[in-house]
Amino acid sequence: MSITARRKTVQGIQLCADPAREACFHIAQHDSEMAVFEDNMSEAARRERLHRHMNNEMGALEIAAQCLADFPDAPWDLRMQLARQASDESRHVAALYRRLRQLGGRKGEFPIGNFEWAVTNMCDTLAARLAIQNRTFEAGQMDLLGALRKIWRSLGDETTAEVLEHILADEINHVRFANRWIRTMVQEDRRLLLKVASAIRFLAETNATLLAGAGATTTDAAKKHADLGINVEDRRHADFSDDEINEILKQAGMSAFVSAEGPA
Amino acid sequence: MGLILREKAEYLGTFRWLEVFLMETLAQWVPTTPEMEVKVLMGRHIWDAAQHADALGKRTFELRAPLHYTLPPLAPYLDLMKELAAVEDTPGRIQAIYDVLLPAFVARYQEYLNGSDSLLDEPSYRVIHEILNAYARMRQENEALREELKETLVFDAGRVDEWRRKEAAIGEIVPRGSGATLAVGAHA
Description:
Distance between the termini of chain B: 11 Å
Largest interface: A-B, 29 and 26 residues
Largest sheet of chain B: none
Order of helices and strands of chain A: EEHHHHHHHHH
CATH topology of chain A: Ferritin
Helix content of chain B: 55-70%
CATH topology of chain B: Ferritin
Number of strands of chain A: 2
Number of domains of chain B: 1
Structural class of chain A: mainly alpha
Largest sheet of chain A: 2 strands, antiparallel
CATH superfamily of chain B: Ferritin, core subunit, four-helix bundle
CATH architecture of chain B: Up-down Bundle
Oligomer: heterodimer
CATH class of chain A: Mainly Alpha
Number of domains of chain A: 1
CATH class of chain B: Mainly Alpha
Strand order of the largest sheet of chain A: 1-2
Number of helices of chain B: 6
Radius of gyration of chain B: 17 Å
Shape of chain B: globular
C-alpha cells in the first residue's frame, strides 16, 4: 500500500498518516502538544523554532518526493522542478540541523507535527498538491521568513538570519514554479480548477476544525499572520499577480495596504 | 564493430530509464525511511538522477530519437530493479543504491564508452563523464553518512554480494532494434 493511502483520524477528520520518523521524535497530533514558551525568543524557544522549522522542511522534502513517486506521467520539466525542490528542502533540513546543534539542540528535543504532509497528500492531483503545499504553505512560509530573519538579526544572531535568507530565496523558486505550472495545467484541463478549489476548501475546513479544537479561530490565525506581515515583494518574485496579493492582504485584514495601483 | 547510431540512442534511452528509476526509487523511499540524515542524502541525490536523465534525454534527441527517449531494460534487469526497489529497511536501501546499483551502472556506462567512438560521439561521452563524476561524489557522500550513523545502522554484507552476483549475471540489458520511432537505417 502506498504511504499516501494510509489514513489517520484527528478530531474527526481523515488525514494522510504520518511519514516515517525516528523513535527520538514525538509526533504531535494537536497544537496543544507542541512546546510553548512564555518568552518566545528564549534560548529554548529559539531551539524549538529551529527544530520545528527543520521538521517542516523535512515534510516539504517528503511532499516533493512523493509527488515524483505518485505522478510519473507529469511533464518532465515539472518533474525536474520537483526533483530540484527535493534537493533544496534536503539542504534546508541539513542547514537547520547544523544550526540547531550549534545552539546546543538535538533531534527529538521537542514535539513535531506533520500537518502539511497530512493535508497535502489527501489530494489526488498534482495541481491540487502544488496549490496546497507550494502555493499556500510555502508562500505562507515566505511571509514568516520575511519577518523572522529580521527578528533573529535584531537578537544579534546573524548566522541564523543568513540561514533563513537562503531558505527564503529557495522557497520563492518553489512557489513560482508551482504558480506557473498550476496556471498551465488549469488552462489545459479546466476540470482541475474544481480539484484545486476543493483542495483549498478542505485545507480551510481542516484548519478551522483543528484550530477550534485548540480553542482558537481562523480569525486569530489570520491576525497572527497579519502581525508578521505579508511579504509582498517576494510574493511578486514568486509570480503572484497584484490581484492575488491584494486578496491575500484583505484576508489578513490589511485592506489599508491595498491600492488600485497594486499592493504597496 | 562498434555501436551504430540507432543502437547508441537505444543505449542512452535505456540509461535514461535507469536514471529515472533511480530518481523515483529514492523519491519513494524518502517518506518511508525514518532516519533524517538518510532522507537528506536521498533527497539531494534525487536531483542528481533527474539531471542525468535530463542530459541523456536531450542527447537521444540529437541522435535522431525522440526528446527524452526512454527504454525500459530487458526483463531480467527490470526484475532485478523491481526487487531492489522493494527493499524496506534503511541499511538495505543504502546498500542497494550505493553498493550495488551505482557501481553496476558505472560498469554499464563504461561498456557503452568502450563500444562507441569518442570523436563521433563526443557529446555522449561528455554527458556520461559528468554522470560518472557525480556518482563518485554521491558515493563519497554516502560514505560520510555511514560514518556519521555507524552506531545506529547495521549492514549485511552478504546481501550485497548476492545482489551484485545477480546483477553481474545479467549480460545484455538494452532492447536493441526496438526503436520503431527512430530513423531507419541510420548508421554512425
